[in-house]
Design brief:
Elements lengths: L1 H27 L3 H17 L6 H26 L7 H17 L4 H25 L4 H20 L13 H4 L1 E2 L2 E2 H19 L1 H18 L4 H27 L10 H11 L11 H20 L4 H23 L1
Antiparallel strand pairs: 1-2
């Protein structure tokens, strides 16, 4: 009997010791705190509003989150290298208006959509050239291209929305496939591709390494500038994809769309546990951060909180997220 008791005790002790490292790894994961934060905010909103858990409201949250979440994919790649991209909002608007304008002008749909995506990539690569090869500060470069992209969009449309798009174009922003809204499917595919790129390829390892110590990467023989150019190109591409989805949802090209979207994307990345200094973060955390922002925005709107107060609350949450990230890094 004593031997049996000793065996059971040993098994329990071994099981507990096996669980501890797993629990420690879970807590150390950059996505752990965003997940806990999402659960807490969701629980508060459920208690505060009876309409929060309705199917229509949850569907609305998912649809609204998809735009910011797609932009945040490219922003994550940029921030992992220690950079920043403030041009994503205007690039998104320019891409959407260009696609809409070319369709209305009679260009074949495939070419119009391709041109819209290409203009986003072009702006991203332009940012990357200035940052990676001319060694200019990312915040200054993308601040300048933010104004350039917004100006081009307004010049192209004369400041007016472009309407009259074909009905089928609404598929990307309004339709459902297999019971799931197409914008959400586009978002999930974008995150899946980004996850594979960052976690299971050499490119992803170099992106993390550049954010951790770019000089060491250069000394090891890796051409860091190429990978920095790549991440800014990805940021431009995801901004263009988001512009396509938004234009499809609105069924018009809006030159003033995307105002403040760059800040929401940065907030999603930071809330997702990424370090603003680079080298740390996971794409799953960014998705959780975008969902957290979406739930927070939706809940505050349902509670009738003033937009001015909402800005204060979101700003305070972002500061708290940065503080927690720095403390964990230390």
């Amino acid at each position: 009997m004593q031997q049996g008791a000793q065996v059971n005790t040993s098994i329990n002790r071994a099981g507990t010791q096996g669980l501890r490292p797993n629990l420690a790894r879970l807590v150390r994961s950059p996505a752990f705190y965003p997940f806990i934060g999402l659960l807490l905010v969701t629980a508060v909103m459920i208690v505060a509003s009876d309409n929060f858990l309705t199917a229509s409201n949850l569907s609305n949250i998912a649809r609204q989150v998809s735009i910011n979440a797609i932009i945040a994919v490219g922003m994550t790649c940029v921030i992992l290298t220690g950079g920043i991209d403030l041009s994503v909002g205007p690039v998104m608007a320019l891409s959407g208006t260009l696609t809409a304008g070319l369709m209305v002008a009679g260009l074949p749909p495939g070419l119009a959509i391709g041109a819209g995506l290409l203009i986003g990539v072009a702006f991203g690569i332009g940012n990357g050239l200035f940052v990676a090869y001319l060694h200019m500060p990312p915040i200054i470069v993308t601040l300048a291209t933010m104004g350039i992209a917004r100006g081009f969009g307004l010049m192209y449309t004369d400041g007016y929305p472009i309407s009259g798009l074909p009905e089928w174009f609404g598929f990307f922003g309004r339709a459902s496939l297999l019971g799931i809204q197409v914008p959400i499917l586009i978002m999930l595919v974008t995150y899946l591709v980004a996850y594979v790129l960052l976690q299971h390829t050499r490119i992803g390892r170099y992106i993390y390494a550049i954010g951790g110590n770019e000089e060491a990467v250069r000394l090891s023989g890796v051409r860091a500038a190429r990978f920095k150019l790549l991440v800014y190109g990805i940021s431009g591409l995801t901004a263009a994809i988001a512009g396509l989805v938004l234009t499809s949802r609105l069924m018009s090209g809006q030159p003033n769309a995307g105002i403040g979207f760059e800040l929401d994307a940065i907030a999603a990345v930071v809330l997702g546990g990424a370090s603003i200094a680079g080298g740390r973060g996971v794409i799953v955390g960014t998705l959780l951060g975008a969902m957290l922002l979406g739930v927070l925005n939706n809940g505050l709107n349902m509670l009738g909180v003033s937009p001015y107060v909402q800005s204060v609350i979101k700003g305070a949450i972002i500061l708290l997220a940065i503080f927690i990230s720095r403390q964990r890094h230390k």
